[in-house]
Amino acid sequence: MNMVILTGAGISAESGVPVFRGDDGLWEGHRVEDVATPEGFRRDPQLVHEFYNKRREKLLTVEPNPAHHALARLARDLKGSLTLVTQNIDDLHERGGSPEVLHMHGELLKSRCTQCGGVMECREDMSRASICPACGGIDCLRPHVVWFGEMPFHLDEVGSALHRADLFVSIGTSGRVYPAAGFVELAASSGARTLELNLEESAATEVFSECRQGPASELVPAWVD
Ligand code: BJW
Quick check: 195 pLDDT over 90? Predict the structure, then answer.
């Protein structure tokens, strides 16, 4: 059986990584246009670096939760027929033991050079004056993430996996951001069964063939095991 799993911020919430939308969400204290668009970065790169520096620092203090571990067990059981796609930029799936993860919105622990295109590990604070270790350029590094208006990564691979899928499962995402929010319809139109696991109803709940509501750390292990 071919399975595609899409995860969002909700799967990492119980690890202590804040979600984006809702009370206490990341967008509550920030204007999305300022910190999550290429225009915002051009306007005030230092503000954007500080937003990601704080999140990077926090990420290094948190741990995967039972939902991440359960998906790693599932990947071992399914031996290659699971495609795990995440919108999250944290590395909690990898630390939870998942062997292969498609980060469609990038990775917080990487930076990218806007001059040479090089992608490198980044566990430290970034600033305007950072120097690219690959090309030596100054003031040309940015977080390796996908902002609004930019093309998400791995879309060809995800599209093929959705086309082949017998089951599509969405975990912990509000279903408000495209193209990820449209994956359920793509999978369903290819004949897949669709399941949503989320704390509450999402913008896409009515499109799924089955929905279960509750915290990911309980729902996901119960579904996997
Ligand atoms: C729990 C829980 C617990 C809590 N247990 N659950 C079509 C229509 C309209 C607009 C567009 C469209 N196509 C494109 C657009 C424009 C735009 C877009 O979608 N805008 C919308 C706002 C309308 N999209 C783009 O610009 C994208 N690029 C693009 O489309 O390129 C062109 C293209 C064309 C054709 C084909 C393909 C591409 C890029 C989007 C980039 C998004 N970037 C961000 C930031 C990444 C870096 C960073 O992290 O800072 O990605 S925005 C932010 O939202 C982040 C997330 O990955 C993403 C989704 O958020 P998520 O994960 O769903 O989090 P929340 O907070 O919204 O929801 C959490 C959920 O968890 C909630 O439901 C809770 O209930 C639940 N929860 N605790 C279980 N314990």
Answer: yes
